[in-house]
């Protein structure tokens, strides 16, 4: 387990060292707040030279309703996955064989 204080799980933690010590290049990302923690952790892995995979249906987010901003959780989740898939990571559904 890694206790984090920033949306990117590699910032201020030993996650990068753990990944390297395990000899892994590939990193699987899943969790809450697709539009924040999942996105920034996938980006962080990519920028470190890892090969991140995000498991879409093992992630979720909440709606944002602040002032004139009103975005449903589903739209926010799908938009975040589109951003991730555009550059940072492979996005898959659970049950997909990872090789």
UniProtKB/TrEMBL annotation:
Keywords: Hydrolase. Residues 2-92 form the Isochorismatase-like domain. SUPFAM superfamilies: Isochorismatase-like hydrolases (SSF52499). InterPro entries: Isochorismatase-like_dom (IPR000868), Isochorismatase-like_hydrls (IPR050272), Isochorismatase-like_sf (IPR036380). Pfam families: Isochorismatase (PF00857). One of its GO terms (molecular function) is hydrolase activity. This is Isochorismatase hydrolase.
């Amino acid at each position: 387990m890694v206790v984090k204080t920033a949306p990117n799980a590699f910032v201020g933690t030993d996650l990068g060292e753990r990944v390297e010590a395990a000899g892994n290049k590939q990193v699987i990302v899943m969790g809450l707040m697709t539009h924040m923690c999942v996105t920034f952790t996938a980006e962080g892995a990519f920028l470190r030279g890892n090969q991140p995979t995000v498991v879409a249906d093992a992630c979720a987010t909440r709606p944002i309703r602040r002032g004139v901003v009103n975005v449903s959780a589903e739209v926010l989740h799908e938009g975040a996955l589109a951003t991730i898939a555009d550059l940072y990571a492979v996005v898959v559904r659970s049950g997909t064989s990872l090789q």
